[in-house]
């Protein structure tokens, strides 16, 4: 099985691209979906996160991500503490996914792949990118997003030029869905050929 790391900055279109890989037959793992599972009622992160950050437990028994965001955004120390709790649980979720995956290509969405030096874990890295103006328009259209919040998120991420240096393949999402889909198909063909020859 070829292990592919999919990454990109906020608003670049990772979720859409990941869905395209799934449509082409890849087994896919979504980091955001994993965090949602961990934060949902009964999730493995609920108790340790709510103990460290009192007041973030929602009425549904899970972690209220908006309340948690207010606690950690712009607070480097709190963010480090949160990541120390959540990242090992996310990695366990990844490993469970890989143990069950039955496909010739597995694609893992790792938003901070570059920032956390994880490129060496993967056979190939795919970077999803888009024009800066397109990205900003997409992100600021999200509910509750502000320029200040976007700035705080981007401050934790590498410049796009640095992320692109890690790429074995690049998918642009600002030229229309069909062009992005065609690029995903080309990548899948290349990965399957690589798998066949290995």
From TrEMBL:
Catalytic reactions on record: 3'-dephospho-CoA + ATP = ADP + CoA + H(+)
Major localization class: cytoplasm
Entry binding sites for ATP: 11-16
Enzyme class name: transferase
Pathways involved: Cofactor biosynthesis; coenzyme A biosynthesis; CoA from (R)-pantothenate: step 5/5
GO molecular function: ATP binding; dephospho-CoA kinase activity
EC identifiers of the protein: 2.7.1.24
Pfam families: CoaE
GO biological process, alphabetically ordered: coenzyme A biosynthetic process
A GO CC annotation given for this chain: cytoplasm
The organism's place on the tree of life at top rank: Bacteria
Keywords assigned: ATP-binding, Coenzyme A biosynthesis, Cytoplasm, Kinase, Nucleotide-binding, Transferase
InterPro entries cross-referenced by the UniProt entry: Depp_CoAkinase, P-loop_NTPase
Localization of this protein: Cytoplasm
Function comment: Catalyzes the phosphorylation of the 3'-hydroxyl group of dephosphocoenzyme A to form coenzyme A.
Similarity annotation: Belongs to the CoaE family.
Protein name: Dephospho-CoA kinase
Organism: Parvularcula maris
Gene name as annotated: coaE
């Amino acid at each position: 099985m070829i292990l592919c790391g999919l990454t990109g900055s906020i608003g670049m279109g990772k979720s859409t691209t990941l869905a395209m890989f799934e449509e082409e037959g890849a087994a896919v793992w979504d980091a955001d979906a994993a965090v949602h599972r961990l934060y949902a009622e009964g999730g493995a992160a609920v108790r340790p996160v709510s103990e460290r950050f009192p007041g973030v437990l929602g009425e549904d028994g899970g972690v209220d991500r908006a309340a948690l965001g207010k606690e950690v955004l712009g607070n480097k120390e709190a963010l480090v503490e949160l990541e120390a709790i959540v990242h090992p649980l996310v990695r366990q979720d990844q490993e469970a996914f890989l143990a069950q995956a039955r496909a010739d290509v597995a694609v893992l969405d790792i938003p901070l792949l570059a920032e956390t030096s994880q490129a060496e874990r993967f056979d190939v890295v795919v970077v999803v990118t888009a024009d800066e103006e397109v990205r900003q328009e997409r992100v600021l259209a999200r509910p509750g997003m502000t320029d200040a919040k976007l700035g705080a998120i981007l401050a934790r991420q590498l410049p796009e030029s640095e992320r692109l240096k890690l790429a074995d393949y690049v998918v642009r999402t600002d030229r229309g869905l069909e062009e992005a889909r065609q690029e995903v198909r080309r990548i899948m063909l290349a990965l399957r050929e690589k798998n066949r020859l290995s």
